Structures are given as C-alpha cells and as structure tokens.
Amino acid sequence: MKLVLATHNKDKCAEMAAILGKFPIDLLTLEEFPEIGEIIEDGDTLVDNALIKAKTVYKHTKIPSWGDDTGLEVDALNGAPGIYSARYAGKECSYSDNVNKLLLDMQNVDEKYRTATFKTVVTYVSQDLELVAEGSVKGIITRKPYGKKGFGYDPIFYVLSQDKTFAEMNINEKQKCSHRGNAIENLKRLFKEHNLL
Question: Domain boundaries in the chain?
C-alpha cells in the first residue's frame, strides 16, 4: 500500500523508513508534495497534532497518510517540554538549541530526579479509517550529550536497560526500545487487525 509520511523532518523519515522497510509499504514523503507547506501543529496534545498532520496531508493527496508527534516529558519540569519539544528553545531553534536549553533548565536537578518519558503518537488517516497508536519509553536526562547518532534529544536521553543514550545506539538498537519504535509496532498491529498488511 502507498503511505505518505506527514513530516518534513528527514531524520524522522529515515527512522520510520528503516522500521517499516520490511513491510509491503510504498513510502512517500512530503518532499514529493511541495505544495504542502508547513503544517501548523496547534493541538493541545500529541494525539491532536499527529491527527492534524495526517488529516492535512490526506486532504491534499487523497493517499493514506501517517502523522506522528513526539514529546519529551521531564518529571522535574512538570512534564515540559511536552508538546513543545521541537520548539522548546524557540520557533527556529536547532536540535542543539533545544538540548542546551534543557540541560540549562536541569543544571540544578539532582540525579535521582532527572527522570523523563519520551512519548510518540502515530496516526493513520485514509478515506474511511482513522487509527491512533502510542508508544513510550522511560529514561534519564544526562548532564551532557553522549553519542553522535540519532537526532533531537537523543544525546541526553539515557535508557537504563541499554546502558546508553539513544545517540549511542544504532538505528536497529534504538527502534527495539524507543518510543517511536513502540508506537509503530502498535500501529502495525492495528494495520493487521484491519487487513491493511
């Protein structure tokens, strides 16, 4: 089946393509639909934003679309940055800007309180079907970046069971334990229940 990934984020596209590569899915990206500009994510939750993306892209392309939204919820910051994770340091910020702001905000937080949860919601929208799946993983915010792989907050998100940050994992290691990997596995189960795979 054809599926449009409703994101301009090339890192997300690469990660999702790697996870979905072994399935009979013809993945398209927004690079193939330049008329679809920036999608305004003004929802109140990750689910809202993921659905906004998928619905917007489906409306323009009439091809089943896949939206996702991810948030890093830090316990010591009362769940921030949450739905604002991608623009935590400002609208045009870089990955490094976000990481540096979070480390600064956490500089006086003791080790035992540096817990956080990465959450991803993935959605599927077609003419007659909407599916929503979620995934999460718990971790610890490190005091400095470790690793060069991954993107976003990966260098400072330490996963206890793996004894490394996401940025120290290769893409196969990451997908087995990550929030996005979990969410995609859950959505694939829904695909099978609806005979889409």
Answer: 2-193
What's the pTM value of the predicted model, to 2 decimals?
0.89
Q: Give the span between the Cα atoms of 134 and 146, in whole angstroms.
A: 27
**105 included as an active-site residue:** no
Kindly tell me the burial class for residue 16, based on how many C-beta atoms sit within 10 Å of its own C-beta (0-12, 13-18, 19 or more). buried
H or E element: which one contains 123?
Answer: strand 115-125
The one catalytic residue in 69, 75, 110, 163 is 69
Q: Which CATH class is domain 2-193?
A: alpha beta
Residue 120's closest CA among 172, 168, 177?
177
Q: Is the dihedral of CA 40, 42, 46, 48 positive or negative?
A: negative
Using an 8 Å Cβ cutoff, are 74 and 106 in contact? Answer: yes
pLDDT, tens only, 123-163: 999 999 999 999 999 999 999 999 999 899 999 999 999 99
pLDDT digits (tens, 9 = 90+) for 3-36: 999 987 788 777 777 777 777 788 888 988 989 9
